[in-house]
UniProtKB/TrEMBL annotation:
<feature type="region of interest" description="Disordered">
    <location>
        <begin position="403"/>
        <end position="433"/>
    </location>
</feature>
<feature type="domain" description="SET">
    <location>
        <begin position="23"/>
        <end position="274"/>
    </location>
</feature>
<dbReference type="InterPro" id="IPR001214">
    <property type="entry name" value="SET_dom"/>
</dbReference>
<dbReference type="InterPro" id="IPR046341">
    <property type="entry name" value="SET_dom_sf"/>
</dbReference>
<dbReference type="InterPro" id="IPR050600">
    <property type="entry name" value="SETD3_SETD6_MTase"/>
</dbReference>
<protein>
    <recommendedName>
        <fullName>SET domain-containing protein</fullName>
    </recommendedName>
</protein>
<dbReference type="GO" id="GO:0005634">
    <property type="term" value="C:nucleus"/>
</dbReference>
<dbReference type="GO" id="GO:0016279">
    <property type="term" value="F:protein-lysine N-methyltransferase activity"/>
</dbReference>
Amino acid sequence: MTDNNEVARLLSWCSERGFWLDPRIRVDVGPSGVSVISRNSAIPVDSILVRIPRQSVLSVKSSPISELIPPNPYGRGAQLSLALAVSVELVCGVASSWFPYLQSLPREIPGMPLFWVGGAHAIHGGPAECLNGTEAWKILFESAENRTSLFNEIDTYYRQVAIPVYSETCPQTIPSLRDFYYSYALVSSRSFLVDSYHGLAMVPIADAFNHAQDNHVHLESDFDVCPECGSLQQCTHDDNEAQERPSPVAADDYYEMVCIRPIPKNSEIFNTYGETLSNAELLVQYGFILDVNDNDRLVWTFDQLAEFSEDYLPERNWKTLGGLESFRELVSGLIPQSWDDTALSQSELVHIDRTHEFCLNGDASVSHGLWLYFVLLLRNSPTESIDEAMNCQLELELHAPSGVDVDAQPPLPDDHPPVPGPQHHHQQTSSPSPYGVIPELAHLLVALCRARLVRIGRLGVETTTEEFGEMLDRLADDDDDPSSRSTRMAISLAMTEKSLLDSCMAAWEGILHA
Ligand SMILES: C[S@@+](CC[C@H](N)C(=O)[O-])C[C@H]1O[C@@H](n2cnc3c(N)ncnc32)[C@H](O)[C@@H]1O
């Protein structure tokens, strides 16, 4: 972990480079590494707490080897490019212009699952195994960008792009793959998208703030600078039409950490790394989780739902629904429509989801997209009304034995036979239900959740709440051991997902007894 001397060296370098820190704050070393704390006076909203000179950030553009790094403006590609720039600066050591900054960063980031696979953190029996089937597992191993694992993407970039650059710039001290992982981890956990010139960048001092959802500060920057030279003023790269950049004032040469929520005296000052980040995302990108995170959710893709339907509802083949692609189009065309004023918005079990995903949210409520998928799948003809299904949903919730309780514990004991699986799926009876497709939909949702629990494995199906508690308590006793801390975070994630799935199953089984 960073020590006080390293922080002192960082601050002295910052002062030489023209940084300005409000005297009401200090940078300190605490239990979560470096943090920023208010001194003995409260700080009001709109105060500028830190000014960071634009030319002091480490980005692909400001790197001495920028010409050698293939440009990659967004997403994981941008992170990999910046990791390459950072790794070369780390090799340069004291010769790097950013040395006092780089020496102040944590030497290891064991909380990030990137370091859990292989070595002491072997996947079998290690913390990574506890992530099996969870949302974090999906981010790590089924990356949305090209369905490959994060590890493969990093390894491929290292071999194909980084090694040739190292051979040219530092042939005597080529960083190892593990060294490259470290640089990637620094970028993943600390970089900011600052403006259209630097793009993603390492921003000293701005990255000393820890994360909270109710943050006190955020980074302000004039994003719209010349992407070619970074100029805030009109420059030779401007064409005649694009001369709308505002004339600069002195402050524009800085990025600023600005107070957006009053800060009490003597308390930690937090930034946010993203208002909607779930614990799975925080863990993978930053190596920590929050005790309570309202953004936690479980997501299914359309393809996963389609695969599930083929297994559990073989009688509904895609041909009867006009083909898989036209069904996909139907569903994806309806989800973004306005659902706020529909009857569904009054449901206790379904929520109108702004992300338009097929998901279960932190209240164990299913998204309107997931509900709609099953309604469209189950209805007997394309003319059957969705409004009718919404009314049936509300009716059934109303007539559930004791109302709907989404926090109810699952009625099934752990040794209860599983809910209908692919082989013995509950068939629709010949007499139609007065609640239309909703009872069948409830059965399917329960089966979908059960299938997800099975993917989580032992922690999903066999572990009781008490056992989770005991495991977490045991690991908390050993919190100084990074491996115990990692396992504790992984188990917490699995426990949260199991609890959401259990609550969802209990609620939908509850309405089946109406
Ligand atoms: C941008 S840095 C923040 C400064 C950092 N504490 C340091 O020592 O340099 C992000 C890292 O800080 C830690 N961190 C940030 N917010 C945290 C939180 N709420 N709880 C635990 N660790 C946190 C994590 O290790 C994360 O990867």
